[in-house]
Amino acid sequence: MSTVLQLSQVTKSYGASAALDSVDFSLPDNAYISLLGPSGSGKTTLLRVIAGFEEPDAGSILFHGKRLDGVEPHDRGIGFVFQNFALFPHLSVAENVAFGLRNRKVDPVTDARVLAKRVQDMLSLVGLSGFDDRAVTQISGGQRQRVALARTLVTEPKMVLLDEPLGALDANLRGRMRNELKIIRERCGVTFLHVTGSESEALAMGDLVLVLDRGRIAQAAASDVVYNSPATASVARFLNCYNLFAGDVVADAFVGPAGRFPLNGSRRKAPQPAYAIRYDRVSIRSRDAVLSDDEVRIEADFIASEYSGAAVNSFFALDGGHVFEVESHLSHARPPAFVEKDRYALVWKKEDALVFG
Ligand SMILES: Nc1ncnc2c1ncn2[C@@H]1O[C@H](COP(=O)(O)OP(=O)(O)OP(=O)(O)O)[C@@H](O)[C@H]1O
C-alpha cells in the first residue's frame, strides 16, 4: 500500500507548552484512519498543521512524497470538514456544494453546465439527490453533514481531514453516519483522517487507529490490536474498558495501594508502570469461592449495576474508594442480583492482565 502522508518529528508549541511533541507517523493511501485522543491531546492542532492553517515549529510533512512547507492550504489538495459543518446559511444545498468549485483559486469551474453536473454527481455520491434547492437551514443534521462532505469532496482532494465530524449529531444519527462515511470514502477512494474523542467511534471506523496522548502518538495500529493490546496505560484509559492500577513490579507480583497481584511473567515496556484488567475479563464470586492457581482476586463492595442491552456493567468500591467495573455479557448468562454494600470477590486470570512498566 502506498503512503499518502508522512509526518516526521512534527512539533508545535503555544508559548511554553507543546501541543504536538515530535509526532511521527505514515498514513496509507485509500484508507479510513481514526485519530483518537482525549480533550487537549493535540488532535485539532495536528489537523490544522496538516491542512496548512498552522505551520509546525519543527519537523517535516510529506504529502505524496513532497514537502508541504510553505504550501498554502488551498494548494495542498487536502480537504477539511469542520465539526460545525461551516455551511453558508443563505445558500441552498447545491449552491453550498458549488461554492468551493466556483471559487477555488486553482482551476475554478465557471461553466454553469459543468458546475451543475459536478454538483449533481456529488449530491448523488452522498445520497442527497433531489435536495439541490433546499435551504441548508431546512435539512436535518445528518443531511447537513453530507452537504459539508460533498462541498469538500467536489474539489477532488487527495485526502480529507474530518474534525469530530459526528460530534454535532445525536447518538442515533451518529451511529448511522459512521457507516455512511465509510461507504462514501470507499466510493471516492481517498484517505480520510477522522478525529474523534470517542473510543467506540475510532475503533468502529478506522482501518488504522492513531492514539494521541499529550501531543505524542502513543499507538498506531488496527482497531483490534489497540483494543486488545493497548501500548500504554494511557491508551488503556482512553479505551474506557480497563480497570487500571498504579504500583510497581516487585519480584513476581504487581504491588500497589490496591494490593498484590501475582504475575505470569509477561510484561510490556511502557514509560509508566501500571496494571490493567479489562472489564469483561472479570468474574464476580462470593468471598469464600475457591481460587485456582492461575487466578487473581480482589475484594470490593457492590455499588450498583447498569443494564445496557447486551451486557450488565457492575460497579464496585475497592478499599480506598477506587471504583472497579465488571462487564458481564448477557449472552453468557445473566449475573445474579448483587446486594448493595455487600462484599464480593472479583476474580480474573493472571494471563488476562496487562502489565506495563
Ligand atoms: N491557538 C492556541 N493558543 C494557545 N494554545 C493552544 C491553541 N490551540 C491549542 N492550544 C493548546 O494546545 C493543546 C492542544 O489543543 P488541541 O485543540 O489541539 O487539542 P484537542 O485534542 O483537539 O482538544 P479537543 O478535543 O478538546 O478539541 C491544548 O493544551 C490547547 O490548550
Automatic annotation (TrEMBL):
Pfam families: ABC_tran. Signal peptide: none annotated. Residues 5-239 form the ABC transporter domain. One of its GO terms (molecular function) is ATP binding. Keywords: ATP-binding, Nucleotide-binding, Transport. Belongs to the ABC transporter superfamily. This is Spermidine/putrescine transport system ATP-binding protein. It comes from Rhizobium miluonense. The lineage of its organism: Bacteria, Pseudomonadati, Pseudomonadota, Alphaproteobacteria, Hyphomicrobiales.
